[in-house]
Structures are given as C-alpha cells and as structure tokens.
Amino acid sequence: MVNISKRNDGEKRFAEYFLQSDDRIDSLTLGMLVNNNIEGINPVTPVKIGSDRVFKYDITNLVTLKEYFGESVKKEKLLKAFYGISVSMKLATDYMINWTSFVLDEDNIYVDKDAEKTRIICLPLLQVINDGNTCNFFKNVLFTVQLDEEENNDYVGKLLTILNPKTYTIDKFICELEDMMGIEHRVFETYNEEEEDEEVLEETAKESKADEKAEEDKTEAAKVQEKAEEVKTEAAKVEEKAEEVKTEAAKVEEKAEEVKTEAAKVEEKAEEVKTETAKVEEKAEEVKTETAKVEEKAEEVKTETVNKFEMKFKDDATDDQATKADNNSETTGKPEQEADKNFPFLYSQKRDEKVFIKKERFVIGSDKESSDYCIKGNPKVEPNHAFIIKKENEYYLSDNDTREGTVLDHLSLFPEDDELLRNGMQIEIAGEILEFRVHD
Questions:
Q1: If 428 and its partner were Cys, which of 131, 146, 252, 407 is the partner (CB 3.0–4.6 Å)?
Q2: Average of pLDDT values for 208-220?
Q3: Strand locations in 59-108, DSSP E?
Q4: pTM of the predicted model, to two decimals?
Q5: For residue 108, with 0-12 CB atoms within 10 Å meaning exposed, 13-18 middle and 19 or more buried, which class applies?
Q6: Rounded-to-integer distance, Cα 159 and Cα 128, Å
C-alpha cells in the first residue's frame, strides 16, 4: 500500500506522493502523463516542496470511490464506475503505461459526482505499485460494497462469472459491461497483451542489473555527497566575501562613471572652443591641458577598477557589441568564435542558434537591455525570467519568481531554488525550449 496524503491549499485540494530515497522515476511514463491528457487518468504535476520531490494530483471537487458508493450502491452507479476504470486502463496501453503503475484501492480512486466520471492515479515509478491483476481488484470491490437491497442483484452473479481468472480479459470485461449498461460498443486500437508482458519482463531484467550496479555506486556516492557539502559550505563563505568585494567595486565604478561624465563635459566644451577662431585656440589649449589632468585622474580610477574586475568589464563590452550587432533578430546572443568552445552554451532547435554562457550570472528574459539571452515575440516571457549562475565551475538554473515559471527536465522550479545543470538538460520557459550543453 502506497502512502498518498491529502492536503487543502486554499480552495484547491491535492493528493500528494512524496518520493522516497529508493524510489526510481519511470521517465517514459512520467513524460506520457505530463504531455498527454489521458481519459480517466488524473494528471500528475512533479514539483519540489522544500527538499522533497513530490507527485501532485488535483482532486478538487472529487470524492473517493468508497465515498461515492456510500452505504449502499445501485447497479447503474456500480457498472458506470467499473466501466470508467477499465476503459482508462485499456487506454493506458496506447501510451505504453503498465497497469502495475496504478493505485488500485477505493481510497485513492476518485469520482466526479456531477459528471459520474472516475479518475485513477498512476505513480510513474519503476517499482510495482500493484500486481496488475485487475480481475481481483473488481472482485474485491464486489465483495466489499453494500448492494441496494431494493434492486434485483442477479447481475452480480453474472459479473463474478465474467471475472473468472482463467477466461478474464479487460476487453471482454468492457464488452460485457457495455451490454449490461445497454450502450454502444466502444472501438479500441488493437493491443497485444502478451507482447507487452514480454517487453515488461525484459525491461525488469535490465532494471535488476542496473539496481545491482546502483547499490555498488550508492556508498561511493554518499562519500562524494559528503565532500560536496563541505565544498558547498566553503563556497558559501567565498561567495559572501565576493559580495563584499562586489559592493565596494560598485562604489568605485560609480565614482569612475561620475569622473567620466565630467570628463565628457570638458571634452565637449573643448570641441566647441577648437571650432572657434585662431584667437581662442590658446584658450582651448589651456582647457585641453586641464582636461588631460582630469582624464589622467579618471584613468587612475579606471585602472584600479579594471585590475579588480577586468574580466567583468570585458564580458560586458562583448555583450554590448553582440547586442548591437543583432538588433533586428528574434533572439540576441554572442557570435560563436574559436575560443567560445571553452564555454557551455544554450541551444535553441526552434531558432537553430547557440548562445555561449560567459558570465557568472547569465540572464534569460525578454528585456533586450538587461538579458544576456533575449527571447522576443513571446509575451509570457518576463524581462528577467530566469538566471544561470556559475558556482565553482558548475552552472545552476533558478527561476525569478515568475508567473509562468521555469521547467527543468519536466520539473517545475521554485523561486530562488538553484538546480544543477548537466549536459543535455532541457530548459522550458513559456513554451520556449533551450538545451544546456557543455560541448557539441
């Protein structure tokens, strides 16, 4: 029995499964559930709550199957529920979802009472959630519900005959239910259960070998994680010191800008004087001499700033040149040079372009002035939508508390929650797909 908790969030209500340390996600099933609206299967939203990874299901305005049946159940209500569950499981095979991934118990199957539609929960995990014996599930429900005594319940005997393990198939069960309900037979695509079972067995054998290897690596990974935590603590101290230096540098830079502004005014005046007649040239030379003194002072301040943050100014200059060169394009990035191969980059297949990440704080957004990667033509992308931050030669992705959010490999990021980027990961921003690559 899996542990699924229920939680109210304002006017919404959710069923939540908190992933355990030994849980392994079935990426194929998760992708099918996230990207498809499968009839009768409750959609899943993978999120992070603090340090926990959670599968979240919206059950607002739904009741459990046990609550729906109540103290006694009529024939029509029972048959409709059985039909909805069996059709959903039949449709799941079209999306390569195995029945052993469904949570088959009356407390975790839900019903929309107004529409009389069932909703079942699928946990996209590689481990087995149920034994896949849907025949026993339906029989157990028949044995536990209280039937309406005012009705003729002879139909129950017919259902038990159909639910004979030796002859039962989901297709036959759906067909018999349609006959008992007096509705037209639904046509499904052909599906070979035996072939699917063989594929599942082969996949299980592969996973077993992978588990053995994973256990061997688990101990070593724990040691690496412990060392990583030590490095992370030291990095935090270095980062704190860097922020102090950065603040002081900002003050120096601000002063340098003031001096440069004053120098620009003096130069402008000097140009006006130079255009006058020869009689005022002598005066212009005096002004130029004074200007040279001011510029010398400015150069001293600039030299001090450059010595501390030479790489920062070079990066900013390169960014400005690349932005001007690509004013008319849909997205703004930096041209690929031979030296760029030392930097990771973002690749947009839709736009067929690369943008190299050369800054320790790389901005993705719709604002042309402040973004290092500018996405135009998409109103859902915010000015400074997300950041890629370099820490100790590794790169992390964070969302800037945006309305649309930022998704990394199907997982929604929480604001101010940095996620480590690895080669080949996909970043989704308001429908725009960017692939993070360390090399071609």
A1: 407
A2: 65
A3: 63-64
A4: 0.46
A5: buried
A6: 27
